């Protein structure tokens, strides 16, 4: 079973805090993990598009440590009974400060929110964390649906979409999703998207058997996906192959099936370049209709 003992939740004192904390609490209760709420005082405000939020959170120009401590105490007091939690405050540039706190508390998962894509004024902190984190990162985008790990009777089931291109990073992310499925009431959909110009599968998979005719790449990819499904999860995992632009198709399928979350592999320090182009990764990080669970290569095996 995947060990999730400590969950780090960076807090920005903004409108996404309630959904972000609720998601982190849900994970902690599912795995008996401790929750670390973290606020970084920061050294500079974000770009103009977020200036109003900065002013609300930093009424005197920048958040003082006392102000941050009081806000964190309020958040801790509002947590459900039985959740082991603590709060940490740091100062400095947000991205590096979060990564340092991740190492300091020994986080097994980072749960964070993002308000939007990077721009010339302010590089997305979420992008940096996904790129450089040594543990999985669960990103909740502003405007995306929430995530309920334990749906009640009558609620929509917890459906997870696992995007793969059969690279080692993607395989590790798939294994991570399988382990979570053994611990949580999840249904998994494995998805492989082939580019429109693709008419062959270059690398044959020994698990599939002898080479299949070149004109049947979709059938081959479908078999490769089916071969990945563990015996004990046969009834809870389905497979799907699509042709098109990877970012567009993955987002489209996530919307169609009502995915509760999307799993993707991430190559540490390389921002998913082992799986998709940077444009595809950014599109899914900032446009996916559901939270995205990024699994780095270093911790997914």
Explained architecture:
The structure is a single chain. Mean pLDDT is 81; it is low at 44-58 and 268-275. With 301 residues, the chain is an alpha/beta fold. Helix 4 (94-105) packs across helix 5 (125-132). Strand 9, helix 9 and strand 10 form a beta-alpha-beta unit. It has helices at 17-31, 51-57, 65-77, 94-105, 125-132, 168-183, 217-228, 246-257, 278-287, 297-300, and strands at 6-10, 34-40, 85-90, 109-114, 137-141, 158-163, 186-194, 237-243, 261-266, 292-296. It is globular, with a radius of gyration of 20 Å. It starts with 5 loop residues before the first strand and ends with a helix. A ten-stranded mixed sheet has the order 3-2-1-4-5-10-9-6-7-8, sandwiched between helices. The chain has two domains: 6-141, 3-Layer(aba) Sandwich (Rossmann fold), CATH 3.40.50; 158-300, HUPs (Rossmann fold), CATH 3.40.50.
Count of extended strands: 10
Major sheet size, sense and barrel closure = 10 strands, mixed
- With strands numbered from the N-terminus, the spatial order across the biggest sheet is 3-2-1-4-5-10-9-6-7-8
Rg, rounded, reads 20 Å
Helix and strand string, N-terminal first? EHEHHEHEHEEHEHEHEHEH
Please state the second-level CATH architecture of the largest domain: 3-Layer(aba) Sandwich
Number of separate structural domains: 2
Could you name the CATH topology of the largest domain?
Rossmann fold
What proportion of the residues is helical, as a percent range?
25-40%
Poorly predicted spans: 44-58, 268-275
Q: Number of helical segments?
A: 10
CATH homologous superfamily classification of the largest domain: HUPs
Secondary structural class: alpha/beta
In percent terms, what proportion of residues is strand?
A: 15-25%
Straight-line N-to-C gap: 12 Å
Residue-averaged pLDDT: 81
Return the CATH class of the largest domain: Alpha Beta
General form: globular
